Amino acid sequence: MKIEEIEITSLELPYKKALITATNRFVAARGLLVKVVSDGGLEGYGYADLFSRSGETLESARYAIEGVIKPMITGRDPQEWVRLRKEIDHLITGNLRAKAAVETAFYDAVAKSIHAPLYILLGGLFRNEIKVVKMLGLDEPEAMAEEAKLLVREGITALKLKMSGKMNLDLSRVSQVRDAVGSGVFIKVDANEAYDAKTAISLAKGLADLGVEVFEQPVPRSQVQALWEVKRHSPIKIEADQSVRTAVDAYYLIQNRVVDAINTSIQKAGGFNEVRRIAELCELAGIRCALSNTPGSMVGDAAALHLAASIPGISPLCELGEFETVSGDPFVGLEINKGILQLPEGEGIGVKRKS
Fold it and tell me: What domains are defined for the chain?
């Protein structure tokens, strides 16, 4: 099998409600859909959600794929992806989201060529479903509480609340959400680097009283010593997100016991194999490895779901399913049912383009 064509399409998927975090205000998910076509007519799909704070933009990712990666891999056999990826990484550094989109498309095509679901290529089936953690963007405490209540009525049992960097207001947000959903719902919070260490420690103590279990990325990504300080004094688990992109980053934090958990994704890490390395490091060290995906096309969620299904070291509680928060996705095949995402049936990643 040879790859004859690689097509790149820009997607702009409007949010049904603007997503506000401590560092961004998103009104649309903007990304690139990558399609590879084999000499036998098989199609494989990958997707990259792109925004400037991720370090990649639509323009930079398009150039990386069209200008550098496409000329290298056109005419090559996607079953040789590991060798091809080494060549790509030698020629162009970084650009992890662009590389992940191409990698996903290659894996999708290869799985289809052997008439198998993607998880077969990723090591086999460990689980066939995951429990969804649904994200709540920043809003007034009352509005977040009402949104949380509606999600729980739909069967959601785990929530991730965005924090603003204003401690009293953030505590009020969590308090009102907790009152609205009761004690049985899992709650984690995500500060997106908004706090300094001392304030984060104070906040963590208040969050513990509200039954919050995980505090994600409380301080700026480069402040590893501050992250360790928060972890040392926090009564709840501290999770790294922006501080970890690669397995090298994960190894350093794990070796030095800087965090209790790591949140990774196919897009952020740059592909399936790097996520596997991170998850296995976490499993060996006995810390939690969370898998997430940003809102966008369900192509990305489907790929992540297959990966979560095949790696025991990934938490069964994943931050997937945010494709429900945008409109205009050209794909179908995934649906959250009572807080659960089940593996889609079929070959490859298991979702199909709308006709």
Answer: 3-115 (3.30.390.10), 120-353 (3.20.20.120)
